[in-house]
Structure formats: structure tokens, C-alpha cells
Design goal:
Low-confidence stretches: none
Number of strands: 25
Structural class: alpha/beta
Oligomer: single chain
Strand content: 15-25%
């Protein structure tokens, strides 16, 4: 399903027919019109009138329409200047996010819910809140520690301590009553706001769907999770959400490479598949136009995710410039239409195979935090402040799975494959099911220690790295790293070397007692997806590197069989499949082997 965002102020009586025709041509199923008039700004009525005019025209072409709006706001200049009466979201270090409003503020709630009722009055198919529906990951790490949240926390716990010291008491060592109480206060404030939005919509039209764009903190760090929030927003309708993780991160953030972003999204997609929820991934190219964030990043992201996340909110139009100025994203999208169909057919009806990454969604409540996380700083700081900021960053970034970064060129799955090795890092080991031990485990040192505390015999008396088989015949390979206490970018040799890749492949096959179906050695940034059908295996390769792969060679353990190639050609010699063409940067190739 293709969902497309479009700025409502980029469409008018002179171009709406051309815009609509382009949506139809590009196969749009749903359009979210972005309203750039927040609840505190003038001009909302004219935008809603425009939406009411457009909705039936799009509906006639079979395209659903919705409205996409800000929530707590992340507009520090306009919001702070116009509405100082609302309580600002604030961090534990007393820094205020001046353009962001606390969900416990009754004036803010009253005004925002009135705004939502106006949105519902034009009968959109759906209303989506932006990813400013969050308490954390703002100008500080973890929040909100404003006077309203602090007052409620003190009412529940009878603790009266300055926020800075409160943070240290809560987020030192492992699970404790103060941390749990703080997370509960955060949860209740977020959930009550979501229910208030739903009630405001129901007062007008209860059939309107409502959902939101997730941020990495809404999955776990605000005391609740995206599924609880999405259900509250949905009411009696089916919940929906947009995942977090976009192609622009490769250019504009320090949260990992394009390959990492793809796997962050696959992780979320696996969690979503376990629930009865609609979800789509974040195909965002902020900031546009294309000479800032290339269309190739967006296309590589989309193609790689088709097996796991077929629905995408795809930014093929620039919503800050006139329609028709930047056509490169839409042109590239149209060019890849046949390839998308081939990929979908390639993986249809097949079950993912490879190494299963075990990633638990809820970790922060019980996380045993390191005393001195190893995040780096540009400027010298006092020791106490350095530790405080490091812990903030560590918690804020706990969402990001680290294990896949060690596994370039190796097929991974984020839903439970039927067989094969399992990789588990850090705090994920606290909830790792016993049944995984029989499949063979790849662990970091922290996970090995946690499993030892759980009375698993993983050979932790040895010095990592080591291989170990216990008396039950269960096999383990333990890496000499703390997988989470490391930067998200930089120092990549900690995550990948050709020698380490070779060792990991050997250890995967040793712990699981079976060969991997495919591997691509000696490439630092290849994303690999594999799946098994009744009579064939599928392989998808996305080159997430600016380097082309000039002599592609796929090592396979599968028996000889007819090979069908997608976006490439090739031949097999022994256990190697050679491709005749190089794999261009940010491109996709695939194949299917009959067995």
C-alpha cells in the first residue's frame, strides 16, 4: 500500500487536477494532507474547507484521504512566541523545550481537543498525529520533568528531590520503585491525552480512524508503548501507526547507516505483526529537495523493506516547494514500479530464514544501566555532568538494536524463523525464551552474564570471545563486546571487519549445526534478506554503500537448482553464484533458487 503525504497549501484550484492525476499515475492508495496550521494559529478554517473540497474528488479515484497534524508541537520559534501560557515540556536538567507543550496542562488539552473536533468536522478517513506526540528525544534526552509531571510524581511517591538528583536515583543500577513510578506517571499522561483525542473525535464522528507517527521513545521509554497508545487513539476502529526510521537519517542524523535504518524498521514491523494493527514505514526524505537527500536512498529503503513492511508513507513530493518543482523522487518511484512487483512476487508465500535477531520491546523498566556509558563529547565537561548526559543518551538510544550491525552480508530475520541460530545482545537476554537455546545462540558479553544469572549454562567462566557447548548439547558463541554501550556511528571496526564477519559466519553455522543458505563475504554494507518457500529459496540484496559491488559473488549451501534472477543475471559454479553485472550503489538485486 502506497501512502503519500502532501502539503495542503501546495494544492489549489489551478493545479488540483494535475496533482490528482499524478497520484493516480503513481499508484497512490491514500493521501495524508499535511495541515501546517497548528491549533494555535489562524487560517485553519480555510485549509479545512480546501480539504472538504478535495476529499470527494480523491475518493472518486479510489484514493483515501486523511489529515496529518502536529500534536505536542516541535515548533520552538512560532509556538514559544505565541503561546507561553502552556506548560513547556522540560528535561531533568531544567532545560525547557519551549515550543512543546505538556499533555498534563489543562489549558493545552482543552484547546487541542477543540482543534481535533474541528478536524473531525470535515470527515477525513483518518487523522494522524505527528511524531511530536512524545515526551522524550527533544532538546534533552528523557522527560518530561516539568512542574506538572514532578508534582504528580511527588504525590504518588512522597519524594521531594531536585530533578537532576531524581534522575540519578531513578536511572542508576536496575529496576527500582522510583523508576517504575516515574514511567507510570509518563504513561498515564500520554495515555490520557490519547484518550482525550479519541473522545473529541467520537463527539463528531466515531468512524474516523486515528493513529500516530511513532518516535523511538514511544516504543518503550515513556512508560507505555505504541500499541497501547494506538489502541487508545483508535477507539472502536482498527489501530494504525507509522514506524520510525527514515532514509534521511543517513544524511541528517547520527543514528546509523541506511542498512541500520532498514533493520530498525524490520524490528518494528516484526513487533507489529504480532498485533492486529495496520502499520506503514517512514519513507521520509527530509530535508528536500533531492540534491540534499537523494532519491536513491528512498528507493533502496523501499525496495529492501518490501518483504517485511509492504506499506510505506513515501515522500515522493516535496511539501515545501511548488508542485512540479522537484519531480526526481516521483520519477524514480515510477521507474521502479516493475521491480517492486517482482520483489513482492519473489517473497510472496515464503517464510524468512537466516539468523533470528531477538529484540525485546520493553527493556527500560528493568535495564541495569552501566555506571559510565562510553558516549563521546565534542566539548570538555565536568565529570558529574558528563556521566549524566551519557546516561541520558544511553537511555534515549536504547531503542536502536545493535546486533544487526555485526551481520552485514548475512540474512537476518526479526520474526521467529522455524530454525537457525539466534542472536541476543544485552538486556534482551532477560526475556529470552528458553526454547531458543536449542537453536544455538550468538551473544554479547552482557547477555552472557544475564543468562548466567538466570542459571543458563553459557560458559561464562571463559573469557570472551569464546565458543561453548554445555552438557545439554546447547551451543553458544560469546562476543567480547557490550553491544549497546557503543556509538551508533563511528568506530565501525567495533561492529564490522572482514575477519569478524568470517568468524561470525563460522560460529553461526557451528552453534546452529546448519549452514546458512546465503552469505556475501567481504562487503561492509550489504543488506541481505532470505526466505524459504515450498520448493524454492529467495534472496534479496540491497547495496547500502556508495561503493558499487563490481564482482558480486554469493556463497550458498543450497543444492543445485534452476535460478531465476531479478534485476541482474548470473550463473552458478560450485557453491558460488556469480552475478554478471555489478551491484550499483543503493540498488536492489534478487534471485530465486528452486530446490
Amino acid at each position: 500500500m502506497l501512502l503519500v503525504p502532501f502539503a495542503i497549501d501546495r494544492i489549489d484550484e489551478n493545479n488540483y487536477q494535475a496533482v490528482l492525476a499524478d497520484f493516480v499515475k503513481n499508484g497512490a492508495d491514500f493521501v495524508f494532507f499535511c495541515l501546517f496550521k497548528n491549533f494555535y494559529e489562524d487560517g485553519l478554517e480555510s485549509q479545512l474547507q480546501k480539504y472538504a473540497f478535495l476529499r470527494p474528488l480523491f475518493e472518486k479515484e479510489g484514493i483515501g484521504t486523511g489529515i496529518w497534524v502536529n500534536c505536542f508541537s516541535h515548533d520552538p520559534i512560532v509556538a514559544a512566541a505565541k503561546h507561553t501560557k502552556y506548560t513547556a515540556i522540560k528535561g531533568f536538567d531544567f532545560r525547557k523545550d519551549k515550543g512543546s507543550f505538556c499533555p498534563l496542562d489543562e489549558d493545552f488539552r482543552k484547546d487541542y481537543f477543540a482543534y481535533v473536533r474541528k478536524l473531525a468536522s470535515v470527515r477525513p478517513d483518518a487523522i494522524m498525529l505527528d511524531d511530536d506526540f512524545r515526551l522524550s528525544v527533544r532538546s534533552y534526552g528523557i522527560g518530561c520533568a516539568c512542574k506538572l509531571h514532578t508534582k504528580e510524581f511527588r504525590r504518588r511517591t512522597h519524594q521531594i528531590v531536585p530533578n537532576f538528583f531524581l534522575f540519578r536515583k531513578m536511572f542508576s543500577n536496575g529496576e527500582n520503585p522510583l523508576r517504575s513510578a516515574w514511567l507510570d506517571v509518563a504513561r498515564d499522561s500520554m495515555l490520557a491525552f490519547a484518550k482525550g483525542v479519541r473522545q473529541a473525535i467520537d463527539e463528531v464522528n466515531p468512524t474516523i480512524r486515528a493513529g500516530f507517527c511513532t518516535c523511538f521513545d514511544t516504543w518503550d521509554e515513556n512508560g507505555t508503548d505504541v500499541f497501547e497508545l494506538a489502541s487508545a487513539l483508535a477507539g472502536n476502529n482498527k489501530p494504525f501507526l507509522r514506524t520510525i526510521g527514515a532514509p534521511y537519517w543517513t544524511v541528517k542524523s547520527s543514528w546509523g547507516s541506511l542498512r541500520s535504518v532498514i533493520d530498525y524498521t524490520r524490528m518494528q514491523a516484526a513487533w507489529c505483526r504480532e498485533r492486529n494493527i495496520d502499520f506503514f514505514c517512514e519513507g521520509d526524505t527530509y530535508p528536500r529537495p533531492r540534491y540534499v537527500v537523494p532519491s536513491s536512498f528512498l528507493e533502496a529503503y523501499h525496495l529492501a523493506l518490501l518483504p517485511d513492511c509492504p506499506n510505506i508513507l513515501k515522500y515522493i513530493y516535496d511539501y515545501t516547494l511548488p508542485f512540479g518543482y522537484e519531480t526526481g523522487y516521483a520519477d524514480h518511484h515510477a521507474y521502479n514500479a516493475p521491480l517492486r512487483k517482482e520483489i513482492q512476487n519473489l517473497f510472496a508465500g515464503k517464510t524468512p530464514v537466516g539468523v533470528t535477531v531477538y529484540e525485546e520491546m520493553h527493556k527500560l523498566r528493568s535495564w541495569v544501566l552501566p555506571k559510565k556509558p562510553s558516549f563521546r563529547y565534542r566539548y570538555p565537561l565536568p565529570a558529574f555532568l558528563k556521566t549524566y548526559i551519557a546516561r541520558q543518551e544511553y537511555i534515549a538510544h536504547s531503542f536502536f538494536d545493535r546486533a544487526p550491525r555485526f551481520f552485514s552480508g548475512i540474512p537476518l530475520t526479526f520474526r521467529e524463523a522455524r530454525e537457525g541460530a539466534v542472536v541476543c545482545f544485552g538486556e534482551n537476554a532477560r526475556t529470552l525464551p528458553d526454547r531458543y537455546a536449542d537453536r544455538g545462540l550468538i551473544l554479547d558479553a552482557v547477555a552472557a552474564r544475564i543468562l548466567t544469572d538466570r542459571a543458563w549454562d553459557v560458559g561464562f567462566s571463559h573469557t570472551p570471545p569464546y565458543s561453548y557447548e554445555n552438557e545439554k548439547g546447547q551451543r553458544f558463541y560469546v562476543l567480547a563486546v557490550d553491544g549497546y554501550d557503543a556509538p551508533l556511528v563511528g568506530e565501525e571496526e567495533r561492529f564490522f571487519t572482514y575477519a569478524l564477519q568470517k568468524t561470525i559466519v563460522e560460529q553461526i553455522e557451528w552453534v546452529s549445526r546448519q549452514a546458512l543458505p546465503f552469505t556475501l563475504p567481504k562487503h561492509a554494507d550489504l543488506h541481505v534478506t532470505a526466505a524459504k518457500g515450498e520448493r524454492s529459496y529467495a534472496l534479496g540484496i540491497t547495496n547500502c554503500s556508495p561503493d558499487a559491488v563490481p564482482l558480486p559473488a554469493v556463497e550458498t549451501s543450497l543444492p543445485n537448482g534452476k535460478i531465476h534472477f531479478i534485476a541482474c543475471s548470473g550463473y552458478r559454479s560450485g557453491n558460488i553464484i556469480y552475478l554478471n553485472e555489478k551491484i550499483e550503489p543503493y540498488s536492489f538485486v534478487g534471485l530465486e533458487i528452486e530446490v
